[in-house]
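Appendix B, example 12.
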Amino acid sequence: MQNWEIRNFKKENYSDVARIYQMGIEGRNATFQKEVPTLEAWDQKYLDVCRFVVMEDGVAIGWAALLPFSAMPSYRGVAELSIYIDPVAAGKGIGTALMAHIVTESEKAGFWTLQSLVFPENTASIALHKKFGFKTLCVHEKLGEMDGVFRDVALLERRSEITGK
């Protein structure tokens, strides 16, 4: 039986979001970031729409949010997706449910393209994206440096079949 639910992000959820983000940083397979941003920086980085948390027993165990692709009005329907799941919640279907939710809600909000930048070694994230129709457009070789090593980054993209046709 499912004992979790997806809700809109509230600022009081940020301590859990930051905890999950920190695990992504420590895992060295989710982000180039070295520090969790402050709530204020996180709030400025992500769009005001399509910010979600997965709550279980009053604790966020996953989150997803969209970043702007560009300030140009012609790209208003394009966003970059961030999705993070607490490793202890793996295997519960939370990533699948959260991805389905943000795809649906992003289309309702008028987004026609979602993009993600994912390390190719993050096979779970790649598989989750592929499950929802994301295609690998390219792999940027040695795009960024982490711990003295240059890492490849895959650019994945999903075009809406109902918005922006």
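The first helix runs from residue 14 to 27. The mean pLDDT is 95.
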